[in-house]
Amino acid sequence: xxxxxxxxxxxxxxxxxxxxxxxxxxxxxxxxxxxxxxxxxxxxxxxxxxxxxxxxxxxxxxxxxxxxxxxxxxxxxxxxxxxxxxxxxxxxxxxxxxxxxxxxxxxxxxxxxxxxxxxxxxxxxxxxxxxxxxxxxxxxxxxxxxxx
Length: 148
Prior knowledge:
The protein has helices spanning 9-29, 35-55, 61-68, 83-105, 111-129, 133-144. The chain contains 6 helices and no strands. It is an all-alpha fold. It has one domain (9-70, 81-144).
């Protein structure tokens, strides 16, 4: 069962949190003494993307955080968005961060900060400019007929 429509400010709120987490991963992964802290933050981010990928954007922990904190102080949204592109974006985020995590655990140099940088760029663009790269990928693949 798919929720009808989403308040687009919820995913943007989550993207803001992800942006902060990814900046922290980049910062802490550049010093060998704090690499484990970076690893822990990235594991947390991967778990959050896993929630979004498995449960969908309406059941994501950040969605509940937005709903029960910030949403109370805002007016009703002027427009809503479909959940499928947002869900697809969560899967893309999981692939990017998960790949960086696995490659780091396989001792690939700089895999963690590179994956975090890629995730940061996408999350930052979504949070600040309301332009979801993963959602645009979904729409492009749908136009090409790759996704029904």
